[in-house]
Specification:
Length: 605
């Protein structure tokens, strides 16, 4: 019985795996297909993965699900037009398949070994297949066909300006060649995920009207040693034939990681060979031939320094998250295809979405449009945007998920705890909504605190206030239920990170204004590497972090003990209504009393 596979949301898929309802899974680069066990209907579904591949594999393994991994990019259901069909000989294919199976199983065993996991715990078949060996899978977009122009990219004016130059090199190469100027070969786009790096690269090709050969770094790296290198060679030779054109390597970090330091034969060999080939190719061509290499990464710090030498990626363009006016521009771009109601104020939406990247804003506009359509409206209203902001912030609403009464109560106390503590803290975060309607997978409930402005500076008292607010959830559980749940783990993680940054980066401790983390190595995703420091100082940092957290937690407890009755009554209201916002919420928050020691702690710690 083979019924057509149906679409499924990823969170549901994870639930089904966890409930041991899934029989087998096929993992493709962009899509997961799976089939339920016969006793659960045997239906097949497909879904889009959202978490890291490693997480998925260990989940499947721990629930004894049979699975297959297909790394071949030709079988994926990607809608990009792949004009480059790989003619693969069927005989060789069979051989490769079985070879791939052996290698895959071997790699899987190695992995299990490394993870210290037991063998035979529902291993299934770890099948890695590399097809189309040696030919790059670069998707070729013909002349100007990316269809993207600079008008489609907003809020990143500086990046656009720098890339405008590249467009000119490509479109009017002769002008530069005649005068003897050397055209740069490689431009690296650096920035957090979703800021429009891929979009910009396509726009450069679109503006210059040249072919765009794109490939993702992870597509180069296959199980077979030598394949990636062959693909790099192939990609460059095709680019030279099509010049002027753009080669775009997305996720450069997947091949461009610093060489060395890996165990031999542990899979690093392949990546190093690929990287070496890339370096060789970059040295072997000349920007004046009309090929320009663009690449994107959100982890520039892990790139091999050789990539940045002169004559390689000697230009870097920062593509950062947009500021408020940038967000408004991006919203305008994406609102073009949508019918907006009279009351929609895109500038107001921009001020409520600090921290959103372009991709989040695109998603927001679409969510709002979906909401309006679902409500049979003729136009998208401000209310739809408000709801969509919450969705994008906290994941999709899922009223259907049922919590036990105790869980619900715990979540309600927890969220009220955040809100009451937060109400007394300085800074520009205002609690605007508390909800115990579960959203997405991660958040059971949430307290919406929207910064009213982009914050670039955090004052010491605000930082303490944020720590106490984060810990307010756990404190409320302890006070009202006498026990604590695992629901606060994310808060605790965030509080610890914040406290550590206060000591190591902001110099806000008795250790003084010494940066224990090198700012230069502060990465775009917010992580950073610590400068080499002595064991004593490390221990002192740990002590200081623990001290800040302990104090903030004690303050959260003191506040909630003082406001015990309010904590109770507000929680009861929340349990009844599920959502607290507007006037009623502000009325509750206005009643919170501050302990006498609060002010002193905020100013002096
Ligand atoms: P990145 O490559 O930096 O992760 P993408 O270019 O893939 O981000 O962005 C994903 C989508 O988000 C784009 O296709 C576009 O719809 C939207 N987007 C991202 N940044 C911008 C921007 N600056 N202006 C307009 N749309 C954007
Ligand atoms: Mg991208
Ligand atoms: Zn919390």
């Amino acid at each position: 019985m083979k019924t057509a596979a149906r679409p499924q949301v990823y969170s549901k898929f994870v639930q089904q795996v966890q409930a041991s309802q899934v029989q087998r899974v096929m993992i493709r680069p962009n899509q997961i297909e799976y089939t339920l066990k016969p006793e659960f209907g045997g239906q097949s579904y497909y879904t889009q993965p959202t978490d890291r591949r490693d997480d998925l594999l260990s989940l499947l393994q721990s629930h004894s699900v049979e699975f297959t991994t297909l790394t071949n990019t030709n079988t994926d259901t990607n809608t990009d037009t792949n004009t480059d069909t790989n003619d693969t000989n069927a005989g060789i294919l069979g051989l490769l398949l079985s070879l791939g199976m052996m290698l895959g199983a071997f790699a899987w065993l190695l992995k299990l070994n490394k993870a210290g996991g037991g063998v035979g715990s529902g291993m299934g078949s770890g099948l890695g297949v590399g097809l189309g060996v040696g030919r790059s899978n670069a998707r070729t977009y013909s002349q100007g066909k990316t269809g993207v122009t600079f008008a489609d990219v907003a809020g990143v004016d500086e990046a656009k300006q720098e890339l405008q130059e590249v467009v000119d090199f490509l479109a009017n190469g002769d002008k530069y060649r005649k005068i003897g100027a050397k055209i740069p070969k490689g431009v690296l786009l650096v920035g957090p995920p979703g800021t429009g790096k891929t979009l910009l690269a396509k726009a450069v090709a679109g503006e210059a009207g040249v072919p765009f050969l794109s490939m993702s770094g992870s597509e180069f790296v296959e199980l077979f040693v030598g394949v990636g290198a062959a693909r790099v060679r192939d990609l460059f030779s095709r680019a030279k034939r099509q010049a002027p054109c753009i080669i775009f390597i997305d996720e450069l970090d997947a091949i461009g990681k610093t060489r060395g330091g890996g165990i031999p034969n542990g899979g690093n060999d392949e990546r190093e060979q690929t990287l070496n080939q890339l370096l060789t190719e970059m040295d072997g061509f000349d920007g004046n031939e009309g090929v320009i290499l663009l690449a994107a990464t959100n982890r520039p710090e892990i790139l091999d320094p050789a990539l940045r030498r002169p004559g390689r990626f000697d230009r870097q363009v920062l593509v950062d998250r947009p500021d408020k006016s940038g967000r408004a521009e991006i919203l305008r771009v994406h609102a073009q295809g949508v019918i907006l109601g009279e009351d929609v104020d895109l500038d107001a939406i921009a001020s409520q979405t600090a921290g959103f990247a372009g991709a989040d804003l695109a998603n927001l506009v679409n969510e709002a449009a979906l909401m309006a359509a679902r409500n049979n409206r003729q136009a998208v209203l401000m209310a739809d945007f408000k709801e969509a902001i919450e969705r994008v912030v906290a994941g999709l609403e899922k009223r259907s998920r049922i919590l036990t009464p105790l869980e619900r109560q715990t979540v309600a106390y927890h969220e009220i705890g955040h809100a009451l503590v937060g109400a007394l803290m300085p800074g520009h975060h205002k609690v605007t909504k508390i909800s115990i309607v579960p959203r997405g997978l991660a958040a059971l409930g949430y307290t919406l605190q929207m910064p009213e402005t982009d914050r670039f500076l955090l004052l010491e008292d605000e930082l303490r206030g944020q720590l106490a607010t984060l810990l307010g959830g756990r404190a409320a559980e302890e006070i009202s239920l006498g026990k604590i749940s695992s629901g606060a783990s994310d808060d605790i993680q965030k509080a610890t990170d914040l406290a550590e940054r206060a000591v190591t980066q902001y110099g806000m401790s008795h250790l003084g204004p010494v940066a224990f983390e090198k700012n230069a190595a502060q990465f775009l995703d917010g992580s950073s590497t610590r400068r080499t420091i002595s064991a004593e100082v490390t221990a002192e940092i740990d002590r200081q972090v623990k001290h800040s957290i302990d104090q903030a937690y004690a303050m959260a407890l003191a506040i909630l003990r003082l406001n015990r009755n309010l904590l109770e009554s507000a929680t009861q209201v929340l349990l009844k209504q599920e959502v607290l916002e507007g006037e009623p919420l502000q009325a509750i928050l206005a009643q919170v009393q501050a302990p006498t020691e609060l002010q002193a702690w905020l100013t002096n710690g």
